[in-house]
Amino acid sequence: MTEQAHSLLKTCWTLMRAIAVVSSSLAAVVSTTLPLFFYPFLSTGYLVVLLFLLTIGAFTIHGILTHIFNDYADYKSGTDAYSPALLSGGSRVIQKGMISLHRMKQLGFGISFVLLLIAAVSALLGRHEPALLLVVGVWAAASYSLSPLRLSYRPFLGEWLSLFPSIFFLGLAAPWIALGELPVWGFQNALVNALFCVAWVMVHHIPDLEADRKAVPVKRTSVVWFADTFGMYYARFPALLYFLMMALTAFWFAPERIWAAGGVLAASAFAVVLVLKMDVTDPEQVSAYEKLLLLAAMATALWIGIFV
After folding, report:
1. How far apart are CA 81 and CA 95, in angstroms?
2. What is residue 233's three-state secondary structure?
3. pLDDT tens by residue, 163-197
4. Superkingdom of this entry's organism (predicted)?
5. Burial readout 272-290 (b: 16 or more C-beta within 10 A, e: otherwise)
6. Using a CB cutoff of 8 Å and minimum separation of 24, what contacts does 231-239 make?
7. Secondary structure (DSSP) of 211-230
């Protein structure tokens, strides 16, 4: 392997922030792939290959592409320079000199072009499911961070127009592709995992609140908007709102999936207690609680994937 290729692989691995991807994107994939193993007409080999391909896609889009655009935008606005850089504050690949800002942008657009080309070919071959999934993934990565939209810099828009659809559609992918239709449990699991992801991302934004205020333009996340509008204590409210929404989903499928519903309610209660207990002015404590939420997200995804 050449030194240049080794350097690129190291940069991509650092960019990926694997823990976050595993606890959100991979969890969403596994949560809706596991139930498919109970379908006798789907071979284990086919499902393993499908799981592998969706995992590659998740790490490519959510782990690399999304973080390329996010690091690029946040470096330019200056928010990463002020971040406490615990779990938040970007991958620091630009700050460490691992890649230049220009090269980062080139890499992001190059990956986007390849993914959209694959989507176009898939559509021409009649494989509309993967085509749509790829388009949604690229849209989410670009719209979340890049101008002119830069939705992560606007309260509520970033999570609902970029983050949520990206994780939700990823969760729908396995049953949609394997069955050619979307079973109710697929919608339910995808919805729970997407809401959990959005909620912990709101916690993820709390340590960067002051850094986001100093950005040019200001990165007015939902967390910043609540803190500016109602006071610092209310920086936790976006996370609380989305965890409560997650809890409400349990009542939708409780009649037929009582064990799954119980797990969702227990996870929601655990998360709400953590968010209410946290000191939003203490970045180290918030980051420690965020790690617990990541573990809870993975546990919830597995639980509802087993109890269908």
Report:
1. 9
2. helix
3. 999 999 999 999 999 999 999 999 999 999 999 99
4. Bacteria
5. bebbeebebeebeebbebb
6. 232/280, 232/281, 233/280, 235/206, 235/209, 235/280, 236/203, 236/206, 236/275, 236/276, 236/278, 236/280, 238/159, 238/199, 238/202, 238/205, 239/199, 239/200, 239/202, 239/203, 239/206, 239/271, 239/275
7. HHHHSSS----HHHHHHHHH
Of 218, 202, 204, 200, which Cα lies nearest the Cα of 79? 218
d(CA 112, CA 118): 10
What is the 8-class DSSP label of residue 160? I
User: Which two three-digit tokens encode residue 20?
Assistant: 């976050």
> 148 in helix, strand or coil?
coil
Q: What is the largest CA-CA distance in the chain?
A: 58
User: How far apart are alpha carbons 199 and 155 in whole angstroms?
Assistant: 14
Q: Which of 56, 55, 59, 91 is nearest to 73 (CA)?
A: 91
Range of weakest confidence among 3-17, 251-265, 279-293: 3-17
Which residue type, as a one-letter code, is found at position 70?
N
As a residue count, the chain comes to 308
Decide if 36 contacts 47 (C-beta within 8 A).
yes
Hey, what amino acid is at 130?
P
The CA radius of gyration of the chain, in Å to the nearest whole number, is 19
Q: What are 214's two structure tokens?
A: 């100093």
Model pLDDT for residues 65-120, shown as the tens digit of each residue: 999 999 999 989 988 887 775 566 566 777 777 788 888 899 999 999 999 999 99
| Range of lowest pLDDT (11-20, 38-47, 257-266) | 11-20
Name the pTM for this structure: 0.94
For residue 41, give the 3-state DSSP assignment. Answer: coil
In sequence order, the 6+-apart residues with CB closer than 8 A to the CB of 261 are 250, 251, 253, 254
